[in-house]
């Protein structure tokens, strides 16, 4: 299986040397079983993680014990980057399916920043994309209906899975439970169940055990409350003056 390096080339095409650096990350692979923690909130920041296979949830715990999922990570994502700025890990990373991650010690990240400006710029722009995604999610949760939140999440998920070459004929793996969706979208499990039934009634999706198929992506986009952001790609790199 081809390693999912597509996220690393969203804005900057890697040179041969840079590609070799990235391929070297895969030498240190760690398998994680479903629902096992990769790293817990409050633990030392010993690494960030490149997700090779599987789905991972990033979550925060509230004082009363409730969990808030803030991100569902897919193959190709870098996990735990925000915690590099914290005294201890600010999020729990939990495998939502069986997963494979490649730990990268903070020193490896520091070396990239010091010695590989093109790769560093690509990572920087990718983190800005994550910030845009968070802005979008805040808009969904703060200003849209439950159905609109669910539609927006599914469209975002679909587009990311397409980029990872994990969609076939509109169908993709969907291992998230109704509890996961509730924690992600700020809904009760009962409300999620009701909203999924409303989504089924639109006829735009088909759901089966652990899979989802979007039958008409364009029509589903027209039902969304927000327009998906258009990223600049190579042009964003050009704006930075092509540092090398």
Walk me through the structure.
This protein is of the alpha+beta class and 244 residues long. It is built from eight helices and eleven strands. The strands form three sheets. Strands 1-8-3-6 form a four-stranded antiparallel β-sheet. It has a four-stranded antiparallel β-sheet with strand order 2-7-4-5. Strand 4 (56-61) and strand 5 form a beta hairpin. The two termini are 31 Å apart. 26% of the residues are buried. This is Crp/Fnr family transcriptional regulator. It holds the Pfam family cNMP_binding. Residues 144-218 form the HTH crp-type domain.
Keywords:
four-stranded antiparallel beta sheet; alpha+beta; Crp/Fnr family transcriptional regulator; Jelly Rolls; 8 helices; RmlC-like_jellyroll; 11 strands; 2 domains; Arc Repressor Mutant, subunit A; 244 residues; single chain
Short description:
Helices cover 41% and strands 20% of the residues.
Detail the topology: elements first, then pairings.
Elements: H1 16-25, E1 30-32, E2 37-39, E3 48-53, E4 56-61, E5 67-73, E6 78-79, E7 92-95, E8 99-104, H2 106-115, H3 117-143, H4 146-163, E9 171-173, H5 178-185, H6 189-202, E10 205-208, E11 211-214, H7 217-222, H8 234-239
Antiparallel strand pairs: 1-8, 2-7, 3-6, 3-8, 4-5, 4-7, 9-11, 10-11
Helix pairs in contact: 2-3, 4-6, 5-6
GO molecular function: DNA binding; DNA-binding transcription factor activity
Protein name: Crp/Fnr family transcriptional regulator
Domain HTH crp-type: 144-218
């Amino acid at each position: 299986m081809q390693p999912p390096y597509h996220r690393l080339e969203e804005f900057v095409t890697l040179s041969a040397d840079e590609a070799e650096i990235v391929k070297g990350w895969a030498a240190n692979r760690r398998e994680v079983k479903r629902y096992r923690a990769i790293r817990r909130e409050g633990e030392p920041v010993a690494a960030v993680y490149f997700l090779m296979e599987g789905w991972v949830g990033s979550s925060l715990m509230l004082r009363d014990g409730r969990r808030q999922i803030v991100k569902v990570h897919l193959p190709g994502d870098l996990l735990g980057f925000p915690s590099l700025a914290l005294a201890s890990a600010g999020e729990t990373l939990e495998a939502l399916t069986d997963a494979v991650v490649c730990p990268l010690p903070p020193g490896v990240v520091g070396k990239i920043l010091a010695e590989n400006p093109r790769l560093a710029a690509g990572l920087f722009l990718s983190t800005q994309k994550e910030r845009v995604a968070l802005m979008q999610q805040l808009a969904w949760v703060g200003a849209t209906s439950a159905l609109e939140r669910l539609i927006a999440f599914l469209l975002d998920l679909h587009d990311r899975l397409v980029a990872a070459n994990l969609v076939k004929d509109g169908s993709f793996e969907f291992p998230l439970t109704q509890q996961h969706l509730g924690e992600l979208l700020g809904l009760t499990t009962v409300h999620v169940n009701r909203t999924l039934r409303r989504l089924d009634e639109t006829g735009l999706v088909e759901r089966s055990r652990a899979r989802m198929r979007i039958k008409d992506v364009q029509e589903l986009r027209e039902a969304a409350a927000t327009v998906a952001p258009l990223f600049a790609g190579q042009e964003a790199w050009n704006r930075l003056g092509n540092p090398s």
